[in-house]
């Protein structure tokens, strides 16, 4: 299942963190990345094929391949839901790529709804 939000918005990752009280796990250097939309999927091949540059990816995946895809697609940030935490090597890769990994206790549906509401 996927959800795509494609809007031109003027919002930075740091503003999203502040607005929703998201935890910043890594990639702090990328907090000023511009957000151009959102993408929701836990299927890596789907994200690789359909996500666009500057989007925020919402997922429950925590392994290093998340950052491989985020880097390949030049995403603005990754939000990990349901209180999951990224693996150490995932955070290391996030820091190298300046793509923040953020966290929330919210479920995917609720976080996607909140993101959509802010970006619409």
Summarize the structure.
The protein is an alpha/beta fold. The protein has helices at 13-20, 44-50, 65-72, 88-97, 108-119; strands at residues 3-12, 23-26, 34-40, 55-59, 77-80, 101-103.
Give a written overview of the molecule:
- By secondary structure, the chain is an alpha/beta fold.
- The chain has a single domain, classed as Udp-n-acetylmuramoylalanyl-d-glutamate--2,6- Diaminopimelate Ligase, Chain: A, domain 1.
- It is 38% helix and 28% strand.
- It contains five helices and six strands.
- The chain has helices at 13-20, 44-50, 65-72, 88-97, 108-119, and strands spanning 3-12, 23-26, 34-40, 55-59, 77-80, 101-103.
- The chain has a six-stranded mixed β-sheet with strand order 1-3-4-5-6-2, sandwiched between helices.
- Helix 3 (65-72) runs parallel beside helix 4.
- The longest helix has 12 residues, at 108-119.
- It is globular, with a radius of gyration of 12 Å.
- It starts with a strand and ends with a helix.
Task: Kindly list the characteristics that best describe this protein.
about 120 residues; alpha/beta; Udp-n-acetylmuramoylalanyl-d-glutamate--2,6- Diaminopimelate Ligase, Chain: A, domain 1; about 40% helix
Q: What share of the residues lie within helices? A: 25-40%
Largest sheet: 6 strands, mixed
What is the overall pLDDT average?
93
Portion of residues in beta strands equals 25-35%
CATH topology: Udp-n-acetylmuramoylalanyl-d-glutamate--2,6- Diaminopimelate Ligase, Chain: A, domain 1
């Amino acid at each position: 299942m996927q959800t795509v939000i494609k809007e031109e918005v003027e919002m930075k990752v740091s503003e999203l963190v502040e607005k929703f009280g998201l935890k910043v796990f890594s990639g702090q250097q990328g907090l000023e990345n511009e957000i151009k939309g959102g993408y929701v999927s836990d299927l890596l091949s789907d994200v690789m094929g359909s996500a666009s540059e500057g989007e925020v990816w919402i997922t429950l995946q925590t392994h290093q391949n998340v950052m491989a895809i985020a880097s390949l697609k030049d995403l603005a940030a990754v939000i990990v839901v349901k209180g999951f935490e990224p693996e150490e090597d995932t955070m290391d890769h996030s820091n190298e790529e300046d793509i923040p990994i953020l966290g929330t206790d919210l479920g995917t549906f609720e976080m996607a709804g909140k993101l959509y509401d802010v970006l619409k």
